[in-house]
Amino acid sequence: MSTTPTTDALAQEFVMFSVEAGVLRFGDFTTKAGRKSPYFFNTGLFDDGAKLMRLGEFYARRLIASGLEFDMLFGPAYKGITLAAAVAIGLAKEGRSVPYAYNRKEAKDHGEGGTLVGAQVRGRVLIIDDVITDGASKREAADMIRAAGATPVGVAITMDRQERASDDPANRRSGVQYVEQELGLRVVSIATLADLMALLQTTGDAALAANLERVAAYRARYGIDA
């Protein structure tokens, strides 16, 4: 499974940035799966130019470090559209300009028509999104890419929550593991839950460190086995 080492300086920098930007918050939240979570990561709160620019830079630095080879980016509607644009800009700042495309939720019957917008989808395509919950939307994106005659090679996300996608005791995989094992796509995350916990363990901020016990308990209950 592709996870970011907890000693990774880039991951630690990103987690701290997310906290300072108000994107990573602590409290009482309900996840999409209906679980009560002590933290919430909301990429929709990268909501101004400066935050979005830095986010794109973090994606770019992680992707370059990963060694994953790709020819273009694809952003699934809706969040992935903005994220793919930000990543394309971040990569250009690192000296690598790549094309990107995205899809519409509804097909357009005038103008250029169709559901795909942007550069022609071809070659090795990297899907850009914020998180992976159960992997279903990534399968849809991969199918669209293949239908266009291209090859999906991976998915880049912000935070890997490293938790099981289902409460079924017979299925202990996370959405990330599903995407890697069943869809055959490499997942590259800027940071993981392990990185978040490492920050909480080492921070000198007492208020921030106070969240460690609850986050650790959540991980013990819902975390993946490996």
UniProtKB/TrEMBL annotation:
Catalytic activity: orotidine 5'-phosphate + diphosphate = orotate + 5-phospho-alpha-D-ribose 1-diphosphate
Residues reported in the UniProt entry to bind 5-phospho-alpha-D-ribose 1-diphosphate: 32, 78-79, 104-105, 108, 110, 129-137
Involved pathway(s): Pyrimidine metabolism; UMP biosynthesis via de novo pathway; UMP from orotate: step 1/2
Residues annotated as binding orotate: F40, F41, T133, R161
SUPFAM superfamilies (UniProt xref): PRTase-like (SSF53271)
Residues covered by the Phosphoribosyltransferase domain: 51-171
InterPro entries reported in the protein's UniProt record: OPRT (IPR023031), Or_phspho_trans_dom (IPR004467), PRTase-like (IPR029057), PRTase_dom (IPR000836)
GO BP of this protein: 'de novo' pyrimidine nucleobase biosynthetic process; 'de novo' UMP biosynthetic process; pyrimidine ribonucleoside biosynthetic process
Enzyme Commission numbers on file: 2.4.2.10
Domain of life assignment: Bacteria
Keyword Transferase listed: yes
CDD domains: PRTases_typeI
Gene Ontology terms, MF aspect: magnesium ion binding; orotate phosphoribosyltransferase activity
Pfam families noted in UniProt: Pribosyltran
Cofactor list: Mg(2+)
Keywords of this entry: Glycosyltransferase, Magnesium, Pyrimidine biosynthesis, Transferase
GO cellular component: cytoplasm
Function: Catalyzes the transfer of a ribosyl phosphate group from 5-phosphoribose 1-diphosphate to orotate, leading to the formation of orotidine monophosphate (OMP).
Quaternary assembly: Homodimer.
Stated family: Belongs to the purine/pyrimidine phosphoribosyltransferase family. PyrE subfamily.
Protein name, UniProt field: Orotate phosphoribosyltransferase
Organism of this sequence: Ideonella alba
Record gene name: pyrE
